[in-house]
Amino acid sequence: MIDEKSIQTLMETCRYCSWMYVLLAALMWFSCNNEPEPKVEVADPHSYAMPSEAKVTHLDLDLNVDFNAEKLIGTAILKIDRSKDSKQIRLDTKQLIIESVLISPDGVKEKVAKYRFGQDDKILGKELIVELEPQTQYIHISYQTEPGAEALQFLPPALTDNKTSPFLLTQSQAINARTWVPIQDSPGIRFTYNATIKVPEGLMAVMSAKNPTHKSNSGVYSFEMPQPIPAYLLALAVGDIEFRSLGEKTGVYAEPSMIEKAVYEFGDLNKMMNIAEKLYGEYQWGRYDVIVLPPSFPFGGMENPRLTFATPTIIAEDRSLVSLIAHELAHSWSGNLVTNATWNDFWLNEGFTVYFENRIMEELEGPEYASMLAQISYEDLEDEIEEIGFDHLDTKLAIELTDRNPDDGMTSIAYDKGFYFLKLIEETVGRKSFDQFLKKYFTEHAFKTMTTDDFVAYLRTELLENHDDAEEMIQVNAWVYDTGIPDNIPFNPSTRFQAVEDQVHGWIAGLKPKDMKEETKNWSSHEWLHFIRVLPDSISSAQMDSLDKVFDFTNSTNSEVQCVWYTKAVKSGYEPAYENMKQFLYKVGRRKFLMPLYEAMTETEEGTEMAKEIYRVARQNYHPIAILSIDKLLKWEPES
Ligand code: BES
Ligand code: ZN
Questions:
Q1: Structural domains in the chain, sorted by start
Q2: Residue nearest atom 17 of ligand 1, based on CA coordinates
Q3: What is the side-by-side strand order in the sheet with 250-254?
């Protein structure tokens, strides 16, 4: 019989081989039982945690936010659930300084614990192994973060809107929670949490938890998160922010200088919530608020439960970019309620959310609007496939990210191929059946995780088997397990975009920009975006100039328009746009905008020089997550 120790050793040497973990666990079970094979917990290749040994069920955080030293200092008390004979618990840490570890049976009678660091990996960080005594239920860790911790960005006042107070923001997804909390950082392990956060006077702290609506005089804030969440949804923001209510259970936080604009921009939040609940069931998280962060936030939005984190680049003053909020709200079901079991199943989070976002926007703005969003998705997907290659393994929905950074999976495949797969199912079985299926899916798997294989099985038994020929028409296996885009992708060109293309064709045939004013006067920013995107690649600098004189794209305040226009400017050598592009890159740290701009510049030698010159100044304004990507692109050696 295989003993536990040799299995343990084997598992340690083959930590990344998830199949090995599953196989060995099954083998061990078989070697001592004649009972049927149990459902083995899914191994997460991006975490050292072994939940079958011991897992965290509650976190008690007590942190001091030190803006001068740019670190968090404090304690994390972990309540654990363990098997009686487990000897240790494995935690994920990265860029953390562990000062002491105590254990206790009750959170009171504490004693010094034996602990050691196990494996150390550039991507995964350091495994922290704490020895357990038979009665141990609590682990008490004193620690501080290291400078440069990947989840954290400490902003000086100059990088905020008010320019008077510093700001701190965290970004835990995908595997950065471990850089600010010693925890089991795996999407399959959920815990509730409480936190006490001490911040400098005059600032407010908010988390992915029940939040304050006023500043405290003491600078101490207490939080409670009663619903269990995985570590990637742990979040904290600290700054000079204030709160405004938007409805019974919705509201917005922002710097005082931004708050009015934010209140206007998110005016449809309640409507979105009502639409979402009507579609797929009651909202499960109590309140839904949004915080507008400073512009260096590396993402558009992050679905931190109860409190979506959002970039200020969606504040366009005309509500034109709020589908991003619909997206983050939708994650309250797809992702936060039913969570991808590992980052290999990321499309279950994002593909479902893009689909759900589209349904919310269809209800809010009409089918023509949703059809524009769907076409943008389609074009993003085509571009992505062209870039990574039709046959590349990363074009599978069921992606394999073992031994890699999970951020590699953050491509249009998960989002847009995922979206089109679900749209195809909807169109094949009919919207009514699909909605019933989805509602049931969210209800039955609430606060649980889902793997790709389990979803496919559930889809077959709960939906496809009741619809003749659905399986053949959809080709589920091809969509999920094969590369590329199947031919049956249900793409229908948007009629509003066709009108845009007519204008571009007219312009190519000689129509003057000023004579296009009438036709384009009611265009939304999506139409303008499409207009710029479909301009020919060969466009000359003089042609760019003639369009700019009439439509003033260079001075646009819509971040999406700015991004595509400046990218075109770089590609066509249209220099009058460069200064504004530079200012945009100094200010905005959203990776979605940074990447295409820096990439376009690196296409020529001269451009590469310009990119480096801009980056030399801008780098300090970006979040560590964005810095990682651009350092790589520009082969940047940090100057000593
Ligand atoms: N959860 C993602 C952001 C994310 C994914 C962060 C993976 C880190 C790793 C969020 O919901 C998202 O998708 N944001 C998008 C906007 C959305 C409208 C497509 C973004 O930030 O651009
Ligand atoms: Zn998302």
A1: 4-33 (no CATH), 46-234 (2.60.40.1730), 241-332 (3.30.2010.30), 336-481 (1.10.390.10), 507-634 (1.25.40.320)
A2: 324
A3: 242-245, 250-254, 288-292, 307-310, 301-302
The residue assigned the tokens 């558009």 is 300
Query: Beta strand 307-310 with 288-292: parallel, antiparallel or unpaired?
Result: parallel
CB 404, CB 340: distance < 8 Å: no
The answer to whether the bond into 626 is cis (omega within 30° of 0) is no
Ligand 1 touching residue 302 (CB < 6 A): yes
Distance, CA of 363 to CA of 367 (rounded, Å): 8
Task: Tell me the per-residue pLDDT of 437-457, one tens digit each, with 9 for 90 and over.
Answer: 999 999 999 999 999 999 999
AA letter at 515: D
Question: How many Cβ atoms are within 10 Å of 12's Cβ, its own excluded?
Answer: 14
pLDDT in tens, 64-119: 999 999 999 999 999 999 999 999 999 999 999 999 999 999 999 999 999 999 99
Sorted by sequence, the CB contacts under 8 Å of residue 199 that are 6+ apart come out as 65, 205, 219, 220, 221, 238
Intervals of the chain under pLDDT 50: 1-39, 640
3-state helix, strand, coil in the chain (%, to 5): 45, 20, 35
Which sign, positive or negative, has the C-alpha torsion 125, 637, 237, 170? negative
DSSP 93-114: ESSEEEEEEEEESSSSS-EEPP
From 302, 307, 407, the mutation candidate for ligand 1 (largest count of ligand atoms within 8 A of CB) is 302
Cα separation, 336 vs 233, in Å, equals 8
Alpha-carbon distance values, 63 to 159, 199, 220, 231, 562 (Å): 24, 9, 10, 16, 39
606 close to 581: Cβ distance less than 8 angstroms: no
Residue 223 in tokens: 């939080």
426 Cβ inside 6 Å of ligand 1: no
DSSP 232: G
- Which residue has its alpha carbon closest to ligand 1 atom 21? 300
- 347, 350, 353, 407, best to mutate for ligand 1 pocket (most atoms within 8 Å of CB): 350
Q: Environment class of residue 158 by beta-carbon count within 10 Å: exposed (0-12), middle (13-18) or buried (19+)?
A: exposed
How many other C-beta atoms lie within 10 A of the C-beta of residue 433? 17
Name the pTM for this structure.
0.93
The answer, yes or no, to whether any atom of ligand 1 lies below 6 A from the CB of 592, is yes
Ligand 1 atom 18: residue of nearest CA: 324
Token duo for residue 321: 């970019």
